[in-house]
Amino acid sequence: MKQLLTCFRVFIVLTLLTGVLYPLAVTAVVRLIFPYRAGGSLVVVQKKAVGSELIGQQFTSYRYFQPRPSAIAYNPLPSGGSNLSCTSLQLRDSVENRGRQFCNSNRLSRQTVVPPDMLFASASGLDPDISPEAARLQIARVARERNYSKAQTAALALLVEHSVAPPQMGFLGEPRVNVLRLNEALDNLK
User: Fold this and answer.
1) Cα dihedral angle (168, 173, 175, 181), rounded to 10 degrees?
2) What is the reported pTM?
3) How far is 72 from 124, CA to CA, in rounded Å?
């Protein structure tokens, strides 16, 4: 009985230490050192959170740059891809449809090489970034939808180029454009 009581006390102490105190300490340190990241990297416009830099979201208006497709409709709760194999007819059909839709909405020829990130959903279904090529192919549509002059379209192209983030630490990943940040900058473009 004495051993059982000792085990129970150790269990309570370790539960408090590793299940309560340690997580609280780590959270406090992270909030002190990285407050923006610890808060979910929320993008705030006019004192209102409009999204997170880390989670993709749908932009339905053609006045905005479109994100890559999501197999889960950008819902972060069931995060995941479609899990369709490379031999799946359903995957092939959805890729072909996405390519046609991208070309049609951007008034591109059928021979245009559509970047893979606009054809395939990300593994998480929440990727907030697109390739610089995908952003560049959308410039003409966004400018047309916003009735931009040639000078404004040139400024928009420059905005896209300034929005390209390099690979992390110079070698991890590919150059990318955060769609939410780009669309936020687009709304602020004069």
Assistant:
1) -70
2) 0.82
3) 9
